[in-house]
Amino acid sequence: xxxxEVDRDDGDVAALFLALWSELDQIYGPNPGTEFRxxxxxxxxxxxxxxxxxxxxxxxxxxDGEVCEVKRMYVCPQVRGRGASVLLLGALEDAxxxxxxxxxxxxxxxxxxxxxxxxxxxxxxxCPCWGAFADDPLSRxxxxxxx
Length: 147
Prior knowledge:
This protein is an alpha+beta fold. Helix content is about 30%, strand content about 30%. It is built from 3 helices and 7 strands. The chain has helices at about 10-30, 85-100, 115-120, and strands at about 1-5, 45-50, 55-65, 65-75, 105-110, 125, 140-145. It has a 7-stranded mixed β-sheet, sandwiched between helices. The two termini are about 25 Å apart.
């Protein structure tokens, strides 16, 4: 299993973003205002794909000064629990450190207890939600200080 940074026009990352969107629609209902195309990510976003040997997961990192935001973290259901999430998160942390970031932040949903448990296990702690997530009762936000 390995993780590689990919370009925004990479077909694997596009397919994984759509799979994530489909899963979230099943959990929370359709959300037509959410953009799940890699090319819609900010220009400075870094996109990563996990392979084993085919594409099995993805994640994005959006720089924002000394804090980088984790976006679109997803691993295909049939391979969850095999370490892809840890590898993806490690790639995001390394990239964030390379950009001079001091922390990572992320938003996930209340109906995703496995994701919440994973992030807590990986050192993230709850924090106030920001921006569009601030008043969303379905959002849970977390931060991790990078050492």
